[in-house]
Amino acid sequence: MSKHAKIPALFAIAAAAAGISFGAETTVNYPESPLPFSGATSSLEANISGDTNGSVVVVGPDAQVGVQGQDAVTVNYNSGTTLHYLSTIGASGEINGNVNINVYTGSFNNQTSSPAITEALIGTAYGASAAVINGNVNVEIKDGDFYGNIFAGGGATVKGDTSLVISGGTFSAEDGVFGGNSWGGVTEGNASLKITGGDFSNANVYAGNHRTGSSLSQNAIKGNASLIIEGGSFKNLNGGSTDGSLEKNKLAGKVEGDTSLVIRANDAITISGDINVASGFVDGDAEVTFVGDAGKLSFNGTLKASSASGEIGGLSGKASINIGTADEAFSGEFNGTINDGFALLQVSNADTSVLFAEAFDVDALVVDANSSVLLAENTKFDTLNLVFDSEFDTGANLGAVLDDIFGASAGIVVSAISQKADGFVVTNLDGAEFSAFIGEDGSVEVGAAVPEPAAFAALFGAAALAFAAVRRRK
Q: How many other C-beta atoms are found inside a 10 Å radius of the C-beta of residue 19?
């Protein structure tokens, strides 16, 4: 039986229209059998093993592949050396359904003979492409050596989401590892990048897109972009895209929704560079979250709200920092330097105990009243909200809670509060906010209820309500 079993083109179109699934109708074992695939099938499985020359493109421009809403293309890269790059599709064509790429091991773009080719693995297409993926693109890397850029998307249009999951390998990239696109590529849904292990000390990591030249349209993610780090060694981490360059006439990549970055230090994480919570253009908000054991996190760099502004990039919304969440605590010393520009720093979870080695200056500080926080000298904030798991009303005396929460750094808090008359708020179990002040004996006394969100309440009102909701569930 032929390794390229085909169904007629008209039958493939009718099957797609009827929503019929035939499973893995076509299997190609490469390099024994050729790629790109040019036939018609309801689903294609490409198994790649052994050394290959040049680049490997899986689906040709005239192929008819997939049933929309189902898995259309599955690529299993089992072993071998690819001289240039692996991509799903070329400059044109269409895939109806999801694309799944699984890399178990291998070597990609370990060459110097074609220096213009700087890519190793591309979820869609290399270069500007009219190709369309009518589904999601999911890329998973378990191991391998990558001597070039990696894109979950690429130069094509993805009508769904892109996802890149990496659990091991060594990565060297001129530009980086991206959850999004390049060459004018577009992801119409969300983009996610999750890393649980690997050596990225020679590759910057981006949740979003690469920048483009003036002859190409802007790389874009229409939804949100997220980056989760759970292990590995890194240079710089970026919640957005590559910044633009006026000198090189390059336009920054764009995320039209929000960006989020999670550092989950349950296993060893080393970050030798900086963390940019937003980079490139971000139309929404940007946040970074730290959870886990600080002893397993090596980060002495700078935490930046945004890496650029003006024509080369910028954050349109607000930037925030979460130390712990309602479900996960953070414990230990936070050694990073927090730059100005953050609207909110929120300390969550009763089991969170954090010592900030460096001073910071944020608009609003929200703190779980059961957590433990030590602040560095010269720390500043415009407003403070302490969130309690108890019921109280106007006139209540909450006791010496500043000493309980902030310990030896309580004086820093008192000094910051004294700089602004209305900068101290407390929230009770029901999520109601009250003005607060420090009594003559040093205790915190509850003042009048806050009838409408104050200017700063919009920054952390939702966070306080989330604290209260979690405690009610408990």
A: 10
